[in-house]
Amino acid sequence: xxxxxxxxxxxxxxxxxxxxxxxxxxxxxxxxxxxxxxxxxxxxxxxxxxxxxxxxxxxxxxxxxxxxxxxxxxxxxxxxxxxxxxxxxxxxxxxxxxxxxxxxxxxxxxxxxxxxxxxxxxxxxxxxxxxxxxxxxxxxxxxxxxxxxxxxxxxxxxxxxxxxxxxxxxxxxxxxxxxxxxxxxxxxxxxxxxxxxxxxxxxxxxxxxxxxxxxxxxxxxxxxxxxxxxxxxxxxxxxxxxxxxxxxxxxxxxxxxxxxxxxxxxxxxxxxxxxxxxxxxxxxxxxxxxxxxxxxxxxxxxxxxxxxxxxxxxxxxxxxxxxxxxxxxxxxxxxxxxxxxxxxxxxxxxxxxxxxxxxxxxxxxxxxxxxxxxxxxxxxxxxxxxxxxxxxxxxxxxxxxxxxxxxxxxxxxxxxxxxxxxxxxxxxxxxxxxxxxxxxxxxx
Length: 444
Known about the structure:
With 444 residues, the protein is mainly beta. Helix content is 9%, strand content 42%.
């Protein structure tokens, strides 16, 4: 059946469309008009699709099919072997993709890493000079209550000073040689001392007398340290060992052997590694306290490691030597950075909770550093007391008080000096003269 609209006839049975025009439509040039050639039947949409499917694909379609199939195949295999992270290519170190911008997908140069600006710290100034010892002052220990501190000297005495007023409260005699190490207990009224007479003594500060001796060192004792949570004492010395003592029973729990020269410094903390030692053999050792064995040896220093300082809040520590001051990360001793510039024999390190690190040297120079960035914000040259030689300017020990607002130094001019922060200093009066030096930072 045919339906006519204008001059167009639609075939109702879906067979096609017949067009009848007023003008003859020859099929091709030179074909005479007849009843057959006077009309042209157009195929249906289904017929067109069928014909298109039957035609061979063009070259462009073949190439497009190859590329898309290849990418699809790669993605499928990558997902099967390694998950989504295998599909995304790793970011280049030099170029990054710009996402979410007008130039999305383009590559731009990656910015060089920038050093964080150091925290501003007020400068420190000399507050008080305490004289009373008649020999080099070799060691300092702070009272946990922050009321007094003790100093040990080459005059074989231990003196206890009032922190607020600086007055001498007590002198303890008993050692027969230089007192090189001091430690004050937080839980008992005990003061521990070690000296070049090979002796480690426990003083009862309620009776002001020696109540225990710890025998075992074969040579001079150079440093002492108390464990913060367990009642044990660690001492180290010139016999290349560190010894762990039970405070109550006087028994030697462990002899930590491994260093090949004098062990000059020892520090302790509540978590593993619980003991850290620095030695004149240029190494630092981290010790497993339970096993009594070395768990890690750090060999980065080229000179004797005379000083250690553990950060009070962060899980890190610093070591001081004549070549460099180095920062390390617990528990494996991963190297953080060098603090270069204190070109002297560093005898002592001090560190407070405000991220101020102080290093004292054999020539009387004292450098103060910002812990985070290693910026040296102040340098102090110690002045000897009148009547002393200039060559007697030397800092043997330093310690911050419990609050971190006072710095105490033990010096070779037989004095104890107390420093404090300058209250009048501001960021405008003492600006940070900081120049980032990323490229020259050593990686070891």
